[in-house]
């Protein structure tokens, strides 16, 4: 983000104040991306985009309004201020709106997190990555078709200026590639995928690695068996175990807590997960996929334990939710240019346990190892959980034949209390978990 953008935001905030706003903030987000898609040895598509948006938020008493534009001309920005002021005078009062507390704002130098890689990756290079991934997919015996491969590269920058003294910006980059393949033929076909994602181009897995993984995973799903219904231990592979973190993050979002619509609304400082489970949100991981240097309101961010040894320690809050709950802000405000700050986590992960994956399942005589989840049958108010799934049977402590067309069900409050984490945590996704075991889930089969 250039100094020109920060100067423009300063000017916008000052003009809003002169127009009668009691307080104001302005954000600018710039992004560029390019991507390719590849299928069965041929380049299918090349896309590219560039965008820059500016959003102004003004406060008049306890009323707020926000308007955005992609036009940086003086005339457009002056109209933006006029529209925003008119809207703020017309909307109902919100007793919890306002800028973040001044004493919670980030001050001093920004952390050195190495979030930006200026490597200029051409469309030809992206196509070569996708091509190699698909070739690796086809090299696996049993793979019969490709569902396509793709690769992308992008960068973005974010700047924020507030009328009570915050002014800063940072930028980041992202690179990713994926491939999906089919094994088997006719009615016996099975599909699977794999991908890689990184802040820096050199940190991506090789196309041969994730392409081969996708093929092997598809072949491993061939000839699935059915299951009868019953209560069994369920083991979530890491790539689906992280979905449990998503349900948890939604349940501790301060907006839902303030409204009383979360199944965890009464669990602060209480045992919520089994002993030994810790869940961390760390915005300061070097090259982390969700790292950030300040939150969407300019608040200082820091590593925090959301769950410590099974005990829920905090909600995630922006300033509006913090005021409503009479709690300090936590640095979890998210930001766009077109709406007031929301709430979101950064690098969210469940800490590794002390036992290996093999030891975690060694005593399971009959259970299920889940590698895919289907649908979103989760009730955020009650915690009721029901999702389609596929994976493998566990027999006598060993991952065995594939299974499909099953439904796993329970209640997240009870599931969290049954969680046991393996020691195989790796940081591959925006949220990360090791292999997780939950006993006593209901399995609905044929």
Description:
The chain has 446 residues and is an alpha+beta fold. It contains nine helices and 19 strands. Among the domains are: 3-32 and 47-104, PmbA/TldD fold, CATH 3.30.2290.10; 123-220, PmbA/TldD fold (2-Layer Sandwich); 230-244 and 352-444, no CATH class. It has helices at 3-18, 74-90, 123-138, 207-220, 238-251, 254-259, 319-325, 357-361, 412-418; strands at 23-39, 42-60, 63-69, 143-162, 167-183, 190-198, 230-236, 279-281, 304-308, 311-312, 333-334, 342-343, 348-350, 366-374, 384-395, 398-411, 420-421, 431-432, 436-444. The strands form four sheets. It has a six-stranded antiparallel beta sheet with strand order 3-2-1-4-5-6. Strand 15 (384-395) and strand 16 (398-411) form a beta hairpin. The radius of gyration is 24 Å and the shape is globular. It starts with a helix and ends with a strand.
Q: Helical segment tally?
A: 9
Secondary-structure-derived class: alpha+beta
The low-confidence parts are none
SSE order:
HEEEHHEEEHEHHEEEHEEEHEEEHEEE
What keywords describe this structure?
36% strand, alpha+beta, 5-stranded mixed beta barrel, Metalloprtase-TldD/E_C, globular, PmbA/TldD fold, Modulator protein, 9 helices, 23% helix, 6-stranded antiparallel beta sheet, single chain, 446 residues
